[in-house]
């Protein structure tokens, strides 16, 4: 893929992705790097502020790297340290945005698969958006039983600490598996999770667009296009053979 060695964004967080990471993540049958899930979330946050002010006050999209912190013991020896989670909030979110939100969305990576956990304050439950076509309901529940309690407890505690106890206590809320489109390709979970972050209507508990699972490769291409040409990508202009594909400038 003819792109620069690296693209970076300057808003909210610093993200860096090398050309090899792009190739590794966006080919069919490849798992998506967490860098791209986090960067996509940053693009959505900027678009919410610039284009969707009602969404900006309605939902908060947390970085996928926060789930790595919550599930620390899965990857490294040692204990979870609660204060490490607060770092993900202090540099990214205003406390008022957290307190006013009706949806708190967290992309979660576990055992090579991406899902989205949504603290749904409209329905007072935790929605699980999982694109994997599990053979049985039992297998799906077993997969999430390994992580759901920790995510609920640790996210609840982190939000309480960050807002000085003002955020709604959801430590006893139930989990609900929301019917969502199921991926056709084995490693499309990251890209379906990105679509869920963008299009989940928590009030109606469904997507606000139709997502065709058979178009997994097209979804990957659309997401890459969106991220490459987003205003927060600092590595512009891109090489000519790619830059000429850019969308027309937005009106002031």
TrEMBL record:
Keywords: Hydrolase, Protease. Residues 1-200 form the Ubiquitin-like protease family profile domain. Pfam families: Peptidase_C48 (PF02902). The keyword Ion transport does not apply. The keyword Chloroplast does not apply. One of its GO terms (biological process) is proteolysis. GO terms for molecular function: peptidase activity. Belongs to the peptidase C48 family. This is Ubiquitin-like protease family profile domain-containing protein.
């Amino acid at each position: 893929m003819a792109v620069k060695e690296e693209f970076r964004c300057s808003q909210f967080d610093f993200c860096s992705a090398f050309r090899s990471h792009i190739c590794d993540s966006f080919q069919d049958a490849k798992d998506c790097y967490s860098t791209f899930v986090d960067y996509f979330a940053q693009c959505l946050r900027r678009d919410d502020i610039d284009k969707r002010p009602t969404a900006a006050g309605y939902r908060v999209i947390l970085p996928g790297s926060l789930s790595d912190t919550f599930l620390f013991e899965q990857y490294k020896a040692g204990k979870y340290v609660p204060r490490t989670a607060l770092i993900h909030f202090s540099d990214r979110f205003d406390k008022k945005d957290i307190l006013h939100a009706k949806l708190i969305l967290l992309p979660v990576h576990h055992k090579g698969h991406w899902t989205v956990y949504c603290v749904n304050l409209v329905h007072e439950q935790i929605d699980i958006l999982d694109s994997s076509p599990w053979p049985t309901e039992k297998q799906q529940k077993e997969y999430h039983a390994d992580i759901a309690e920790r995510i609920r407890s640790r996210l609840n505690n982190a939000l309480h600490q960050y807002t000085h106890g003002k955020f709604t206590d959801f430590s006893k809320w139930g989990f609900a598996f929301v019917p969502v489109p199921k991926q056709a390709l084995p490693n499309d979970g990251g890209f379906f999770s990105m679509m869920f972050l963008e299009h989940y209507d928590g009030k109606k508990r469904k997507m606000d667009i139709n997502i065709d699972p058979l178009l997994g490769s097209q979804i990957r291409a659309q997401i890459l296009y969106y991220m490459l040409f987003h205003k927060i990508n600092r590595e512009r202009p891109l090489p000519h053979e790619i830059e000429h594909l850019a969308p027309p400038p937005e009106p002031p």
